[in-house]
Design a protein that fits this description.
Keywords: ATP-binding, Cell inner membrane, Cell membrane, Kinase, Membrane, Nucleotide-binding, Phosphoprotein, Transferase, Transmembrane, Transmembrane helix, Two-component regulatory system. This protein has 473 residues and is α+β, with helices and mostly antiparallel strands. Helix content is 55%, strand content 14%. It has three domains: 190 residues, Beta-Lactamase, CATH 3.30.450; 83 residues, Helix Hairpins (Orthogonal Bundle), CATH 1.10.287.130; 153 residues, Heat Shock Protein 90, CATH 3.30.565.
């Protein structure tokens, strides 16, 4: 017996190429479902409590039905048996000429109809449910095993029960009771009261969860204020013990941060005065010392480098800029920054529009552009041309400072954004504290912008400051 070889290209249940698309679709469907789920503590907890309450109510309703159905079946069975017995007694004791009037009265007044059973009767059986099984079993126990049931006799709907005038009588009759007598008259009331209880429970759950989430939202807002350099209001130290402890710890932390910030400002003011004043005197003394010009130039350059490093430490220590945003003509700002460098003999090429105004923090932005120009001069040299451009790109304002220095390898860019880091291998000049790019990064973050460090075509580095918004004119 030969076996047919399996075609590897044919889709099979064990083929990974067939399972992979379905797996990806399932994951995508799962991600879509997760996006619709609540993400806050308030609604996640509320949804969990709501599901728990709904499940509990459903379970209790099933328990109630399970234990209530037998007693209800016995009551209904007793009512049906009483109707059948009364009907049988009335038919037996009534005079034959009055039986027709009796049947008419039963149908008109009580909705009870009686018909003789025939072999050709078309019957619809009763539904196979637990309440109906309990009801028919109890009726059959009292009326006899020969009792039959139906939900429709010929074309008439109702609850039909067969009976005999005498136990030994082979003739049977059908008695019909309206279905309304078997229905639960209080089902709607139970539904209304159950729904009201569920709504009240959900409202209570929402209030409980809100009492927990409100202090957490307040703490989150205060934490964002601390992150942006603002002083948040004191958090209320009340409520549950755990939340009160967290609020107390947060208030203590913000107080410590405020005192540390005040101490930092005091230290910075002292450093600015106590260090820069002696440096100014030292520079004056060097220039008036009568030493050879090349030595004086070298010492003055070192003093300027020390002063610049101190300035970088001060800038970095001040934290995020607190200056208010004001409309500034960026073209005029860049021209003002470039002019002192040109007077010093630095070759700076400007590529600027006629006018471009944008709300910025002028002093921090000037500091950021100056740091990038100083970096370009330090690593590319003052003889190599430095290009400063200003343009709008995709709804952003781009300030580009480009040089022809050795550049920065792409894998080192992120590291150089951190404070006190320098690229020793690519740029041989090791002067500076390594804070220039960190200060620029902080200034751009305060503006909602970004700093890009990209290799320049033809060699060099292109540092681009991107600010949101703006339109050139």
């Amino acid at each position: 017996m030969s076996s047919c070889p399996t075609n590897p290209s044919r889709p099979t249940a064990n083929n990974p190429s067939v399972r992979l698309p379905s797996l990806l679709r399932a994951r995508a469907r799962g991600r879509r479902i997760l996006r619709w789920l609540p993400h806050t503590l308030l609604w996640q907890t509320f949804l969990s409590i709501a599901l728990l309450l709904g499940l509990t109510l459903a379970i209790w309703s099933q328990i109630f039905r399970y234990f209530e159905e037998p007693s209800r079946a016995r009551d209904l069975a007793q009512m049906v048996v009483s109707v059948v017995n009364l009907t049988r007694t009335a038919l037996i004791n009534a005079e034959p000429r009055l039986r027709t009037d009796l049947l008419i009265d039963l149908a008109a007044l009580e909705g009870i109809r009686i018909y003789p059973s025939e072999a050709t009767d078309e019957l619809q059986p009763v539904p196979d449910t637990r309440p109906m099984r309990l009801l028919t079993a109890e009726i059959r126990r009292q009326l006899g095993d020969h009792t039959r049931f139906a939900m429709r006799w010929k074309t008439l709907d109702g609850f039909w029960v067969s009976f005999r005038l005498h136990p030994e009588d082979p003739d049977e009759y059908w008695v019909m009771l309206p279905r309304e007598r078997l229905q639960k008259h209080h089902a709607l009331e139970w539904l209304v009261w159950g729904s009201a209880a569920l709504v009240a429970s959900l409202l209570g759950a929402f209030l409980i969860v809100s009492r927990i989430s409100a202090p957490l939202r307040s703490l989150a807002r205060a934490a964002r204020m601390v992150g942006s350099g603002q002083n948040p209001p004191l958090q209320e130290e009340s409520g549950p013990v755990e939340l009160a402890v967290v609020s107390h710890a947060f208030n203590q932390m913000t107080g410590d941060l405020a005192r540390a910030d005040a101490d930092r400002a005091l230290i910075l003011a002292g450093v600015s005065h106590d260090l820069r004043t002696p440096l100014a005197r030292l520079r004056l003394g060097v220039e008036m010392s009568g030493a050879p010009e090349d030595e004086v130039t070298a010492m003055v350059a070192d003093i300027e480098e020390m002063d610049r490093i101190i300035g970088q430490f001060l800038d970095f220590g001040r934290g995020d800029p607190q200056e208010a945003m004001q409309p500034v003509d960026l073209v005029e700002l860049i021209r003002d920054l470039a002019e002192p460098y040109r007077l010093r003999g630095v070759d700076i090429e400007l590529d600027l529009p006629d006018r471009l105004s944008l709300p910025v923090r002028a002093l921090p932005l000037r500091r950021a552009i100056t740091n990038l120009i100083d970096n370009a001069i330090r690593y590319a040299g003052s003889e190599s041309p430095i290009t400063v451009g200003l343009s709008t790109q995709s709804g952003e304002v781009a300030i580009e400072i480009a040089d022809r220095g050795p550049g920065i390898p792409p894998d080192e860019v992120e590291r150089l954004r951190r404070p006190f880091t320098r690229l020793e291998t690519a740029r041989s000049n090791t002067k500076g504290a390594g804070l220039g790019l960190a200060i620029v990064e902080r200034v751009m973050r305060a503006h909602g912008g970004s700093l890009d460090l990209l290799p320049r075509e033809g060699g060099g580095l292109s540092a681009i400051l991107r600010l949101p918004g703006g339109r050139s004119r």
